[in-house]
Amino acid sequence: MQIHTLILLILVGLAAGTLSGLVGVGGGIIIVPSLVLLLGYTQKQAQGTTLAILLLPIGIFAVFEYYKQGQIKVNAAIVVSIAFLVGSYFGSKVALNLEESVLKRIFGVFLLALAVKYLFFTK
To answer: Three-state SS across 56-93?
Structure first.
């Protein structure tokens, strides 16, 4: 791995980790676009790499801080985690059978819809 690639990956990880701890986002919103736009990964490679990151306990320290402050609804986290497990399995099956261009458009529409919602429809 080249040094500039390593530095970019460290910066992406720091940005995603900081934003994850700050506002609860990271993987899809920061890491996937960064890997595609800055490092030339395919959409599928970026998504797969991000999912591999999620396998490790990357958010354990942030979770611990939120838990100490009583800001985690444990039952909801368990239910969503189980549903996420099932959904990610079937979602990956679909994604891996789509063309790169279609997958990028779906991802872009999702981010755009999210941005519009937060910019114009949040109180």
So the answer is: CCCCHHHHHHHHHCCCCCHHHHHHHHHHHHHHHHHHHH
- Looking at the predicted structure, is the pLDDT value of residue 50 above 80? yes
**Structure pTM?**
0.75
Burial of 34: CB neighbours in 10 Å, binned 0-12, 13-18, 19+: buried
Helix (H) or strand (E) holding 15: helix 3-23
Encoding tokens for residue 27? 């993987």
**By residue range, what is the domain housing residue 87?**
3-120
> What's the confidence (pLDDT) of residue 34?
92
Structurally, the chain folds into a number of domains equal to: 1
Residue 22's pLDDT is what? 75
- Kindly state the tokens that stand for 107: 């991802």
Q: Exposed, middle or buried by CB within 10 Å (0-12, 13-18, 19+), for 30?
A: buried
